[in-house]
Design goal:
Strand content: 15-25%
Number of strands: 4
Oligomer: single chain
Shape: elongated
Order of helices and strands: EEEEH
Structural class: alpha+beta
Largest sheet: 4 strands, antiparallel
């Protein structure tokens, strides 16, 4: 069997997880390497090389998203601290 990569829904950005298919189950679900024995219903399946390219791009997006989210949170925490400080300080 040729190597195959599956992508399935996930609840965090980029809203997909992925892995190399090690087993096809009944009713279309798959078992992915590293996630055994859990089975997932794939959103789509790609040949391994194409899936690997997509997974690298998605992982880069995830890292950038998390970095920007962390930066945005820090900005708004600082703003909230400033607002509270001015209010308590009477300025």
């Amino acid at each position: 069997m040729n190597r195959i990569m599956a992508f399935w829904k996930y609840d965090m950005y980029p809203y997909l997880l992925w892995g190399e298919v090690v087993e096809f189950k009944a009713k279309g679900s798959i078992v992915a390497k590293g996630y055994e024995p859990m089975a997932f219903m794939p959103e789509f399946i790609l040949e391994y090389e194409e899936g690997l390219k997509l997974s690298v791009r998605l992982e880069t997006l995830r890292k950038n998203y998390n970095a920007q989210k962390k930066s945005l949170l820090k900005t708004y925490q600082d703003l909230a601290t400033e607002v509270v400080s001015k209010c308590i300080g009477g300025k």
